[in-house]
Amino acid sequence: MKVMFTKLPIITLLILSVMLIACSSQQPVPIQERSVDIEQQVRQPAEVEGAGLQVRPLQNPGVRELVSQADQAEQNNNLEQAGIFLERALRIQTRDPELLQRIAEIKLQQSSYEQALNYASRSYDVGPKVGELCSRNWRTIGVSREFLDDIAGAEEARQRSITCAAKKPEGF
Amino acid sequence: MAKKARRQSPARQKKRKPGKQPTPRWRVRLVCIFAGLLGLTAGVGGCWIYAISSQVVVHFEQRRWDVPSRVYARPLTVYAGMPLTSQLLRNELQAAGYQSSAEPAQPGQYSIQGNSYVIHTRPFAFADGLQAAQIIKFQLIEKTISGLQVGGNVASLARLDPAEIGSLHTLGGDDRTVLQLTDFPELLVTGIQAVEDRNFKRHHGIDWRGLARALWRNVSTGSISQGGSTITQQMVRNLYLTNNRNLWRKFNEMVMAISLEHKYSKHEILETYLNQVYLGQIGGRGIHGFARASQFYFGVPVQSLQPHQTALLIGMVRGASWYNPRRHRERAMARRNVILDSFAATGLLRRQQAEQWQSLPLAVRDQPGYLNSQYPAFMDLVRRQLREEYAEDELQREGLRVLTTLDPAAQLQAERAAREGLSRVEQSRGWQELQTGMVIADPNTGDLLALVGDRNPDRAGFNRAVDARRQIGSIIKPFVYLLALANGDNLMTQISDAAINIPMPNGETWQPQNYDLQNHGSVPLLTALIQSYNQATVRLGMGFGPERLADLLRRLELLPETALPHPSLLLGALELSPLEVASLYQVLAADGYRTRLSAVREVLDSNGRALTRYPVQLDIFPQREAIPLITFALTDVTKRGTAWRLRQMLGREASIAAKTGTTNDQRDSWFVGYTDDRLAVVWVGRDDNQPAGIAGSTAAMPIWAEMFNGMPLRNIDVYRLPGLTWYWVDWLDGWVTDANCPGAGLVPFRAGSEPVQWRPCRN
Fold this sequence. Notes:
heterodimer; A: mainly alpha; Serine Threonine Protein Phosphatase 5, Tetratricopeptide repeat; globular; disordered N terminus; B: alpha+beta; Penicillin-binding protein 1b fold; Penicillin binding protein transpeptidase fold; Beta-lactamase; 3 domains; five-stranded mixed β-sheet; 33 strands; 38% helix; elongated
């Protein structure tokens, strides 16, 4: 019994520590520390949402090559390098909606949310406004707004991304 | 004597050998004095040697790493389908120091045969990696690139190394490019040793045999014609000493040379020598090192030097002024041939080869391969931008590489337009004192492609493109209409152009008038804008108040927060520089996505690592959804508005958005025009701000047209402007009507602001 009493403070401390750890593990991760999973949050859902009619503007072969190099760099987790390749491509084709969206996605992964939003918005403005690209535009805008604490704006963007699906005309 | 005997100790008396006389005291004293002096000399001398050795090491270290920053134009990217003219490409290659050659076997050479182009690029470390030298081939068919190949393989794009456009260093500072020893061509490395110091690999700083040989020749000829200096001694002289030929200087030089050889390897010494040796002068700056001299005299990188060029540069080591090939061709030729003989004598070239190279001309460019006085307005802006991030000292000494946005071909066009266009305007107007400031930019990326700050573009000084702030007049009007359109109006909304009186706080009345002093009744906004009616514009602006326009300008950082807007702001009573006007219009030209105009893309360290990048940052402009309407209206300005003569001046069909501007008493002439990929601003006026008798369409517009003459432009496709819907409307009242009605025109509207009234054709 005496042993029990002498060890009581230690046991109490242990219990408190466990409780604290348990509590802290339930704390939400600060928004700045969260990272974006671009595949899960933008590309894959957009593929589903934007199914149907796709309008893909012709891309310059030089731009395509630079985009492919940027993809490679992104896969190697070298976002800075990917950004450099995409910016080179942008100087060739300044209003290419696919290219602008890719830059937006790189910015999103770099936690540059305002720039991600602006590039996605520019892509939408000059883009087809239907299909997968449209959905990626709005998903990127939505995620960016969420990180920028614009919850209502994020929800509006989610709704817009759903409306990007366009049915193929009959006989198409 | 008795006194002396008394002072001698018994012990000493014992040691004295019998029969030997004692040493006289004076001799003892003399020896002591001599020994003392010797010790003193050795001490002082040792300290001296230590001091000068330390100094030369410090200087050596400084010279090895003290390198000014180099500034480069934007690299030209070529791709299949790219619009390009032969003239623009030639200008680009010339600016980058490429040399025409039948067989471009060396980096830095190109060939043109018919419409086929071969360019042998030079290696360059870009921020995305080192790009090796490569051979690019393509054809220019109907001003478009096709059949692009890189290294013999079909390619979709290729990038040329950028033109070097200048360096950042102190006034009077030296100009040099530092390379590693392995980057120098073999003939140069071996040739310099064959000519200047054949025993370099074996001596320890001083070549005693060579020195003796030189001494003998000097004695036998009775003059000091040969110095016998080793490469190490020459470098010491360049680093630290003067060219005085006296024994004390020679002694110091020898001490320092030995000291350097003791501290550094032969490799390090030769590398520093090749980077440091004095080879010429431009203005107040010395040209140091073979890499810089190669660019300076031949316009090619040192790796591309031909043997006769290498021989000339090596020959100039003995006296860069005396053998200056631009001033003393024959003397330089003779010296070059002596060096080629030397190459043959030492087996570096075969005799026959040497003779062949001797038969060739000097091949020196008339002008230096680059001039630091080139593009002074642009370089001024580069310096200003860099100073925001870097200390002056860093820029001048750390060998940074600054990649800018300058498009050399566009700059050349702008400079030509400034020179010739202004002269033509002056001849027709009878003025001789006009000045200009010009800016060309890519509105989508913010890249500043060309900048002209003076009618003589090579003249440094007052940079009008950046610093000449003048009233902008009608240039402001599109922003008045933008605010109205963003507020729900459309281009067919009617506005009265009747006379207008604005009561002022001081009790007076402001009565703006139209340029033609006429009232035009009720007109659509589109007409009021493209005809630049003052009365209609003021009426429209007063509807929402000049404060709204002031807010827009403040957002673009073009108006101080504290400025109180006067109604005259609606007619452009605001002083801006051409660069600021470009910044204002960038927002329109990029469909409402603002980006900062920048002269610098990135700064790399001497190893090619990116230190600072200036990525393209976009900012959404609040009124962006109405901007495509303004762009449409401004394309109409060049069809039937105040700039209708532009296409005639350009000599081709082009869809360009533009606005003219003329200020009170015709003091300033402005013209701003943009396409999908170019935005350009031209200001013309007098430095003393006196009336110049010029309007936007009579001075600035012809110069703008001259600037873009022959330059490919991506036309604005008004039907692809974002967010617009199109209706056939009656021009007179703006009602929707049928396409086949007389007086019907196709006009764009923003979703939600479409006209609702429809009616059939008017009879």
